[in-house]
Specification:
Layout lengths: L2 E6 L4 E5 L7 H12 L4 H14 L8 E3 L9 E5 L2 E8 L3 E9 L7 H24 L1
Parallel strand pairs: 2-6
Antiparallel strand pairs: 1-2, 3-4, 4-5, 5-6
């Protein structure tokens, strides 16, 4: 499957989407945060680990589903300005499509579109592998 495990716990396995060329937007985003010494990197790592161990936080300040019919099934982890877009797969797997720094009140449409596209491509590739395998 086109994913890499980020953190695995008893509640969930949290993975990052990897495209056919091997590009992983989430890993690139984390590298960028590390290089700039961004203050929220530790918090987003804590949040992913906490989710893998204990489940999805009920606090909407940490994780929420995006509203609107076009964003159905897309969620975001929130660590102050850092956002990580994700969706569910079967068997308690969370797939993160990418991360970004939120600079305004509303999540930009292009971030939602990127997450929706990643989800579609993920399931298209997963179904193809099941048929071919």
């Amino acid at each position: 499957m086109p994913i890499r495990t980020v953190v695995k716990g008893p509640a969930y396995e949290i993975c990052a989407w990897v495209d056919k060329s091997g590009q992983c937007d989430l890993e690139d985003f984390f590298r960028e945060l590390r290089a700039t010494g961004h203050k929220d990197l530790a918090k987003i790592h804590w949040l992913l680990k906490r989710t893998a161990e204990h489940g999805i936080p009920k606090n909407k300040e940490l994780s929420r589903d995006l509203e609107g019919e076009h964003a159905k099934g897309i969620f975001e982890f929130k660590a102050n300005a850092v956002r990580v877009m994700w969706f569910f797969d079967e068997n308690r797997i969370i797939v993160c499509t990418h991360g970004f720094l939120k600079k305004s009140q509303k999540t930009k449409k292009r971030e939602i579109v990127q997450a929706i596209d990643g989800k579609r491509r993920y399931f298209d590739e997963s179904e193809g592998k099941k048929r071919d395998g």
